[in-house]
C-alpha cells in the first residue's frame, strides 16, 4: 500500500467539489419539489374553478417573440423609446381685476345765507389768535394776536362783547377757553368759535 499525501491544492479542490455536489443536490431537490407543488396547486385551482363554476384563466405555456417587449420593459437596464415630454400647461396670465369704484354722492355745497336772507359767498377768514381776556365778569375784554404789517412784528387787538373788528368780525361771546366770533352781514348760523391759543 502506497501512502500518498495530498497537497494543499488537491485538498482544497476536493473540498470544493464535495461542497458543489451538496449544493447542486439541494438545488435539484428544491426544483423538483416546487414543480410538484405547482402541479398540485394547478390541479387544486382547476378543481376550485370547476366546483364554483368560474371561467378558468388561460394558461400561457409558450411565448413568442412578441412577448420579449413585455418582458424587457420590466428590465431597468434596457432602454426603450423615451417617454414623450409633458407639454408645459401654464395658464395664460390673467389681467388683474380692477375693483369697481362705487360712485359717491357729490356733496351738495352749503348755501350761506346773509343777514338779509339772500345767499352770499363764504365769510372772510378770522386770522387772529385768541390769547385770553381781562376785566370783570360783566365787562370782559378779549385780546387777540395777529402778525403786523412789518415782518417779525405782532399786533394785539382788544375788544369787548358786541364790538366789531375791522368792520367784518363781531365779538359775540367771550369765554375762558374760547371766543365766539360772528361776521358782519351774515346770519348767526355762520358764527365760528375760536379756541384759546396754546403758544
Please outline the helices and strands.
Blueprint: H1 8-52, H2 67-72, E1 112-113, E2 119-120, E3 129-134, E4 141-147, E5 154-160, E6 164-165, E7 169-174, E8 178-183, E9 192-195
Antiparallel strand pairs: 1-2, 3-4, 4-5, 6-7, 7-8, 8-9
Helical proportion, percent range: 25-40%
Number of strands: 9
Rg (C-alpha, Å): 58 Å
Order of helices and strands: HHEEEEEEEEE
Distance between the termini: 140 Å
Strand residue percentage:
15-25%
Biggest sheet overview: 4 strands, antiparallel
What would you call the shape?
A: rod-shaped
Low-confidence stretches: none
Number of continuous helical runs: 2
What would you call the structural class? Answer: alpha+beta
Q: What number is the mean pLDDT? A: 77
Biggest β-sheet: strands ordered side by side in the sheet: 6-7-8-9
What's this model, at a glance?
Helix content is 26%, strand content 21%.
Q: What would you say this structure looks like, in words?
A:
By secondary structure, this protein is α+β, with helices and mostly antiparallel strands. Among the domains are: 7-54; 123-195. It has helices at 8-52, 67-72; strands spanning 112-113, 119-120, 129-134, 141-147, 154-160, 164-165, 169-174, 178-183, 192-195. β4 and β5 form a beta hairpin. The radius of gyration is 58 Å and the shape is rod-shaped.
Amino acid at each position: 500500500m502506497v501512502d500518498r499525501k495530498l497537497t494543499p491544492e488537491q485538498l482544497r479542490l476536493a473540498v470544493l467539489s464535495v461542497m458543489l455536489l451538496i449544493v447542486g443536490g439541494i438545488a435539484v431537490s428544491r426544483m423538483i419539489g416546487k414543480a410538484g407543488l405547482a402541479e398540485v396547486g394547478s390541479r387544486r385551482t382547476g378543481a376550485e374553478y370547476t366546483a364554483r363554476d368560474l371561467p378558468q384563466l388561460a394558461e400561457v405555456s409558450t411565448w413568442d417573440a412578441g412577448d420579449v417587449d413585455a418582458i424587457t420593459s420590466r428590465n431597468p437596464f434596457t432602454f426603450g423609446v423615451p417617454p414623450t415630454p409633458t407639454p408645459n400647461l401654464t395658464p395664460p396670465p390673467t389681467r388683474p381685476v380692477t375693483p369697481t369704484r362705487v360712485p359717491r354722492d357729490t356733496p351738495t355745497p352749503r348755501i350761506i345765507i346773509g343777514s338779509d336772507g339772500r345767499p352770499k359767498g363764504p365769510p372772510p377768514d378770522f386770522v387772529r389768535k385768541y390769547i385770553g381776556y381781562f376785566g370783570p365778569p360783566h365787562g370782559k375784554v378779549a385780546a387777540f394776536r395777529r402778525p403786523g404789517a412789518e415782518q417779525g412784528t405782532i399786533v394785539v387787538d382788544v375788544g369787548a362783547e358786541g364790538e366789531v373788528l375791522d368792520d367784518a368780525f363781531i365779538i359775540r361771546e367771550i369765554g375762558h377757553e374760547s371766543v365766539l366770533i360772528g361776521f358782519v352781514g351774515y346770519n348767526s348760523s355762520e358764527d365760528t368759535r375760536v379756541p384759546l391759543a396754546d403758544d
